[in-house]
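Predict the holo structure. Ligand: S-adenosylmethionine.
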Amino acid sequence: MQIDFDNFYGEDYLKIYGEDLERRTQAEVEFIDSTLNLKPGAKVLDLFCGYGRHAILLGKLNYQIVGIETSQYLLDVGLKKIEEAKLKENISFLKLNPADINFSNEFDAVINMYTSFGFYESDEQNFNLIEKSYNMLKPGGKFLLDLVNREKVISLQPSKNWEEREGLFVLEAYNFNHLKGRAITRRIILSNGLRKEGYISIRLYTLAELKNSMENVGFKINKVYGDYDGSLYNSQSPRMIPLVVKE
Ligand SMILES: C[S@@+](CC[C@H](N)C(=O)[O-])C[C@H]1O[C@@H](n2cnc3c(N)ncnc32)[C@H](O)[C@@H]1O
């Protein structure tokens, strides 16, 4: 089954998760700012920026941000927010498919936030994003990959959840397919008698697998964080966030 990004990450996504996302953003941006430790005006690429919740706060901190996203709906929401915040000088958004990303030696940092990695079926395509991130960076540039912690996820699944948000009834079922190493979320939304169904499947790599793929392209591991408070990774951490450097 193909993931329909525009559908899964469209209007319903923000209705369901928007408030949670906003609540998390300040702490996430403080973490990005302190771990990257860049000079004012540094150039940062936000790979799969969503509606730019990190990009906007980073722009306020005077970074120069380029956000890449495929969902037109999220980009439109982000563009409106940039205009309202008068940050058009600092932030630009590009609607680009990953295959069309072709920057080279341009950025001081690349960030990929909130599990925006692992969507492809093949390891080759997923790891290609790591290689592209490497190529986009200047020498000495940093790549921050913020993922859900696979080991923790496995210990919590299978599970189900239902919620009512803004008139939508949202039913989600989460499973981990051990043979494929993938976390699978099935989402049904009921609204005004209509039923919509979405599906997303994310390859969750072990830290050792990620380390290999990062070192293979030339990155050096600097640290692996387990949460946005700066604590280091362990098997029960909420997140798995490697910070790696282009040699
Ligand atoms: C979980 S959301 C996170 C968005 C944003 N980084 C944030 O923290 O709000 C994942 C985003 O990745 C985008 N995306 C599009 N194509 C993708 C791909 N091939 N791989 C990973 N993410 C992709 C989706 O449209 C979606 O906005």
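The first helix runs from residue 5 to 8. Residues 5-148+206-246 form a domain with the Rossmann fold fold (CATH 3.40.50.150).
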